[in-house]
Each structure stands twice: as C-alpha cells, then as structure tokens.
Amino acid sequence: MSTTRASIRWIRADLRVRRGQALLTVLAVAGIVTALITAATLLEDGTNPWRGLFAESRGAHVWIHTKDAPDVTALSRLHGVTQVAGPYRTAPVMLTMDGKKSPVALRGMQVRPPSVAAPLIREGRWLRSGDVDGVVVERSFAEALGLRVGGPFTVTALSGASHPLVVVGLADTADQGFYPEWTPGLAWTLTTTLARVEPALGRSESVTGLRLADGEDTLPVAHGAVTLLAEKIQRMSTWREVRASMELDNRLLGLLLALFGVTGLVAAALAIVNVVGGRVLTQTRDIATLKSLGYTRSQIFGLLMAEHGALGLLGIAVGLVCGQIASSFALDGMPILPLSSVPLLSIIGGTAAVVLVAVALPAWRGGRTPPIPAAPAAPPKGRLSRVARLALLVRLPPALVLGTRDAFTRRVPAFLSIFGLAVPMMMITIGLGVWATLDDFLHHPEQVGQAAALTVRPDKLTPEDAARIVGADPEVQAAYPGSEVSALEPEQTRSVLARAVGTSAQPYPFSVVEGRMFAGRGEAVAGQGLLDLLGVKIGDRVRMTVGGTPLIVHIVGRVVEPDQDGEVLSLGLDSLAAKDAVPPQFYSLVLRPGADPAAVRARLLAASDEGLEVHRVVNPAERLEVVRVLIVALIAVLALLGLANLLTASALGLRDHALDLAVLKAMGLTPGQVAATLVTGTGLLVVLGVSAGTAAGASLVGGLIDLQGHTSGVGAGIGRTPSALTLLVAVLVAVGAALLVTLIPARRAVRAQIPVAVR
Amino acid sequence: MSPPPPPIVNTVNLVKIYQNGGVPVPAVRGVDLQVEAGQFVAVMGPSGSGKSTLVHMIGGLDARTSGEIWLDGKRADTLNESAWALLRRQKIGFVFQFFNLVANMTVADNVELPALLAGASPREARERREYLLGELGLADRADAAPAQLAGGEQQRVALARALANRPSLLLADEPTGNLDSRNTRDVLRLLSEVHRDGQTIIMVTHDARVASLADRVVSLLDGEIVDDGAVGPARRRPRATAGDVVELRG
C-alpha cells in the first residue's frame, strides 16, 4: 500500500520520542500474559506430575489386579486397547527399616524395561541380569522412608522369611500415586528374585496394565475387562485415580492467578485506552496535519492501530516466553508439560483481541480528528469544577485550587484515569488480603480447622499407654481421641471421610462457622464440600452408612474444612459404633500456645521409646507459600499499569496547561507553586483512584476468598481483609510514588522556556 | 477557437454555516470564485470574514454546507472524506500559519512524507526532498528537528512539504501570519518564485502588503466577496519585494 512507507516513518519517529512509554506498554501486556499463561498451566493439570510422568513413561491407563495371569491376547483385543503392560507377578512383602514396618508390593520385572509403563529411573540404574538381590524403588516411597541407592532393603515375605535386598535405583512411575497417599509402596525386582522371596504363587497377584488409544474411554475398556475376566479381578485402578492422588494445591494458585490475570487484563485494557487516547490527544495537531497531507480517516486508524497494536502484540509475544519460564519456576523441578494448544491459543487470541479493541477505540477517535490542523485542541470547558469551587470555599492555597480545577477539565480522560488507577489498586488490595489470609492460616490454625498440631497413633503401644504418655507431656493442652472411618452417602455411590474426634460432651475444637457444634449422639458437623455433595443444609438429617453401620446423621453446623475438598463429616466418637470407636485410632493433640510442635513430637517419641507414631499436621498455608511470590510479582505488574495510566494523565495535564504555565507565571506564581498546580491536577485523580480502588478491594477481598473457599469445599469463613495499617501504608505508598512520578515532569515543564505564541 | 481549459478552482454559490450551540453562524455566504491555472490569488478580509473557511473548503479540510466546488474541471464537493484525502495527496499542497510540521519527524522526513504517501519510492522522495530543500536554502538542515528551526525556516520547510508532490494547487492560509518582516519577505519571495514557475496559488492573508504580491486580490467581508480585482501586470514590478509595494484595495 502506498501509505506504508510514510506510516513506517511516522511510527518510527513517534516511537523514538516515547521509548519509555512504549516499553511500559509492552511490559504491562507481557506481565498480564505471563500471569494468564502461568494460571492456565497451573489450572490445566500440566502441573500435576502425573501428566508428565504418564507421558514420559508411556503409562497404562488401566491397571488390573488379578489372582492369576490373565489372558493377555484377549485383553489386548478389547476395543480401544493399544498395548498391554505385563502381566507382572506382584507379591506383598513387609519392608523393615529401623524397626518400622511398611508394606511393599514387590513386582517382578525383566532386565529389559517394558515399552509401556516403564519405570523412569531417576537415580541409580535399572535392574541387570546379575542383580539377584537388587530392587528399584518407587521414588516417593524411597524418599518417605529415607531409602538410598546402595542402601539395604530388607523384606519379610508372608512366610516370615527375611530377605536382605539392596536398592540399585530409584524410579518414578505413573502406575500408582505417591506414597503415602497411595499404599503400599512399590518396588521392582527381577522375576527370579521375586520367585525366591515369595515362591508360593497363591500368595501373589498378577498386575496387567492396558494402554488405550483414548484415555477418555476408560469405562468401556474397564467393562470389557470385567466381562472378560469376571471374578478373577481383584481390583482395578484407572489413570484418573492416580492423577487425583497426585493432585497438588495448584488449583487455588491457578485460580488466584487467573483472577489476577483476567482483572489485570481489564486494567491493562484501561491503561492502553488511556495511554493511546492520551497519545492521540497530544498528537491531535500532527494527526490533523497528516490528514491535510492526504491521509484518509481509515489510514489514520490503521496507522494508530499498527503502532499501538504492534506494541501490545509484542507484549503478548514477550509474555508467552515469560509465561513458560514463570510456569517452570512456579513448579520448581516438577516435570511439567507445556500448555496444550487450546488454552494457549485462547489466551493469545483473547489478549490480542482485548489489546486491539483497547487500541481501536482511541485510534478510531484519532481517525475522526478534523483535518484542520489549526483546530483548537484545548479542553472545551474552562469553568471551575464543583470540587474546585469547594476548594476555593475552604480557602485552600491557590496552587491546590488551580490544580483541582485542572483535574476535571477533561471529564472522560479524568474518569478513565481514576478508573485505570482504581482497578490495579483494587487488585493490589485483594493481593494483600490473600496475604493476610495466608498469615491467618499460619498464625491461627485453629480458625481453619487445624487446632491440633500433632496426631499421635499408638502403633506399638496400647491406646491406654499412648493416652497416658500424651497426657503427661506438659505442653499438650488436650488430647482428643479419634477414629476415621469411611461413610457412604445415601446413594451409596461415593464414600467420604467420617472423622470422629473428641466426644459429644467434649468435642474437638472444630472451627464452626455456621450453625453450632455437635453436642449429642447422632449429631455431626460437615465441611462445605460434603454439604454440596449431599445437597443438604444445616439442620437436615441424612441417612449414612458410617463405618458399615447405618446412622441417621443430624448435621448441625458447618466447619472450615481444609482436607479432602471439604468432603468430611466430623462427629463425636460416641456417635460411632463401638467397634470403630474403641480403641481410638489416634489422638489429636492441641498444644499450649507457643509450644513448638517439633519439640513436643521429639519428646513424645523419646517418652514412648519410639513406640508412638507422631505426625505433624501440615498447614495448607505452608504449601501455598509460592502464592506470596506471586502476589509480589503481580503487584509489580499492576504497579506498571498504574504507572502507565499516571504518566498519561500527567502528560495530558501538562499538554492541556502548557499555555497556562506562562499565564500562571505572569500572574505571579512561583515556579514551586506552578509545579504544585500541575502535580495537584494529576495527584487529585491519583488520590481518588487509589482510594476508590482500595475501598473496592477491601470490601471485595473477604467475599472473594470465601467464594473460592466455598467452591473448593473448604467453605466460607477463611477470608481476611488486610489490616487497616497495611491498607493505609499501601495507599500512602501508592499516592506518594505517584506524586513523585508526576513531580518530575512538572518541574521540568516549569523550568523549561515556555513558548507563549504557539497555537 | 478551442474551448478554454477549465479553471483550476471553480466554486458555485458556496455556503458554509457553522452550528454554534444550535445557533447557525454563517461563515461563507454564497461565494462564486474561479481561479485559472497559473494564477496567484490573495484572499483578503478582516478576522472572521470567512477567508480561512473558504480555503479549507476548497482543500476539502472542511465540508461545505451547500454549493459546488469544482477542481480541475471535476466536481469535488460531493466527494467523501477519503476521496478528498486522495485528491489532496495528488493535487493540493497546504501551508498553514503555524507551519504544522510533524514535531517528532526530522525536516527531511517531513518533506518526504507527502511524496511517500503518494506512492513515490524512497529514492524518488529523497531526490525530490533534496531538490526542494536545496532550492529553499535548507539543504543543511535536513536532519534537524522542526523545533530547532527558526519560524521562517519552519515555514520554508512547510512550503517544501506542500510542493513535494508538485500539486496543481497550493493553498496557503496566512503563511506569513506568524513571521517577522524579514522571514515574511523570504517566504513571499519563495511563493512568487514558485508562482513564476507556473504554480497556482490561493493565499489567505489580512496583510495588504502581502496580498499585493498576487495577480488578483479577492476581498471577503462577512462571508461574501465584496471585491475581486486583478492587480494589473503593468503595476506589478516583478523583481520588487513585498516591502516595496504598499497598495490597499477593497
């Protein structure tokens, strides 16, 4: 096109004089795209190690455990099955380590690793033909037990015979979940070794993996296998269960990022509208000149779209790269797969569309600039705004009054500036609220349903001895006996966890946020997840099968429930059948304030001569520490957006009042007062935007976190608003930084020689 | 006798009425103006007499309310905005009172811009620019930014830009309105030189001395032509500078 060359000259010249602003646009868009891509990677279970492991090991979708080796040919002929792994003979053995016994499934393998579902060696090596005593251990199991390559692996078969084996390698697998979520632990050994450890075929089972053409088609294959093998099948597992057991808390992280990303995108769109709009306004004369030289309306539109749109698209490209890097940092060391193309393309497409629309609005306005370059570009109205009149009324210094008047001479840009500052500030406030909520989780675990810092299982001791040792510890405030059984919900299709801790008379300090605590037999409290699952309200009675015993449960309250997606029924031990309740499986220990759980744990272990099994309760917030990094990064991006808005508002203010400066000086204002006038004009918008944003953020954050809590099953009641002090500091920092940023160009403008005659 | 070539500009009962808060304000009230090729016409009149509006309408910068505009024998008032832009690109050069150079671009880029816009290759545009700046005595300022130039230099650059595409019509809106007398003289000398080379010029001015340079002076008052007279060639002294001629008309 004939205008291309001329347009390129124009764009190059324009970008040369506003490098900083252009860079800001690119960075802001890049930041948003980074957040969105990282969010999508986290949400799309790319972060679930299962995905990577499954792809890397060419895992099997379905695992079938049978008594004897099944008919492999028949299985492989099932519709949808592409390959078969095994069958592998697997024997249950007991691993003895430092006096602790852990069940292990010992699986017989060949020297040559299989083509489907091959264990992925991470340390050491795979089995060799001479390894009569060698085992390769599943990595999470090895890590939990402190097993190392070259270390002993002494197993006891069901017959009671002990076999000293040696670990030769550690491997990852997608065959089963991580230990201890998935038990027993898994170890591979040569079939000959397995035959020596467990010669009796009757005491072992056969494990066969099926790799399917389409992982979504598990159900028909499973049905086919059941029909084929009938009662030979002992159990079956699918990739979904494995994946679910490997699921991390990335969902919350991803949702948070997505929230920030999407709102950030809105903020970015506003910033772009502001920046481009401001630029178009300041260039009105130049654009008019271009038109008088023969640019058409659509060519001006295209020119502006090309210049500002290209910056946005460059930002998207940079964001793409940063997103990949950020994702891999966020999931330090975890095998992740890149984002699949659909969400990636929708992020790129969506952001590009938002950016282009945001550019198009001011560009369209630019295209409509009248071609008479002499047309006045000054603000149309010059009368005092109400705010200014108010300022006059209270006898503020003249610089403030004049600045206040200036702030609203252009109504629409003024409101866009306020809004453009308010949105990032709102998100920053929400970020601070999330921070405060995390702090609250850590400092007041009892408010999030984690009053107990330690869980003690009697293990080798009798429950009475355990209770005595626990009760004797000076820092244990209370020990609540408890048992966990599975409860079947009314339709009997899905089991949930029923956790009985404490008794109806002396209940465990669950954090009840709605209704009341259970106070009698048959009464229970539930997490939000369970209420949603059952579709019941507080006060309803539900027939459930708790630990095999039918029970009509009266749900009297809702608790904050961070475990099991909130699908937990909590009740008193006296509500359970005696066979489940006596003796209690564990004791939940509430420690005295200030007690160190690790110290108490060590003391209890020493007192019981290592006979107790003492676990620290993991606070969900500890797993969410990465959120804080994220909040800091997002605040940086949002601050960039705010800065872009601010610079535009400031530049526009300067431009509108460039002529006034001479007049003001002539009227006898000192350079300081003139600068103050300019700063006030922008500063007022900043104060309004920041205050509005903070107020909106503070009123939204509790609700948003609770909403997230509700949908994740934890339940509402965890959201915290940042403290008043934090908010005040945030507002002061934002306003102070903004004023500083405006002061520099204002001072420069005041010092510069003012062309009185221009225009 | 063959029919005479059509006038470069022909306006028929041209009217422009601005709407100022719902109140119609007539700026141009039925102007009939013919400008022949090679003529140098000065449009004079006091402030608010509609002279700038008239020139803007002839250049398509402002839409007419009624009437006809014919450029080079073709009707132009019915063109849409884009067609006007294309027409300006090829046939019309503008010089404004405040120069209106694109501030971010160098002098060279400013002058090359119209040529590039009209589809010239970068080389052609550069050669044309070098020629024009050389003619106007600005060859050594090609890489300067407009803000670094004095007012008269800026207006010479603007003139170079207006002439970049060899327009058939040069419209100048108070080209000397913002210049001191020395720069005024320089710019006027340039205008008369390009006129001598055959350039058709319509120049708006309120300065009688400036107007006296033209072949013909059209006087506007309240949007109507009140006087239209040729400055007789006999009375014109071609080598004279503007300062030598003091002649008031209308």
UniProtKB/TrEMBL annotation, chain A:
The chain crosses the membrane at residues 20-43, 252-276, 310-331, 343-364, 414-438, 629-654, 675-705, 725-744. Its main location: membrane. Residues 259-371, 633-753 form the ABC3 transporter permease C-terminal domain. Keywords: Cell membrane, Membrane, Transmembrane, Transmembrane helix. One of its GO terms (cellular component) is plasma membrane. It is a multi-pass membrane protein. The keyword Cell membrane applies. One of its GO terms (molecular function) is transmembrane transporter activity. It is found in: Cell membrane. Signal peptide: none annotated. Pfam families: FtsX (PF02687). Belongs to the ABC-4 integral membrane protein family. This is ABC transporter permease.
Automatic annotation (TrEMBL), chain B:
SMART domains: AAA (SM00382). Keywords: ATP-binding, Nucleotide-binding, Transport. The keyword NADP does not apply. Residues 9-247 form the ABC transporter domain. Signal peptide: none annotated. It comes from the Bacteria. This is ABC transporter ATP-binding protein.
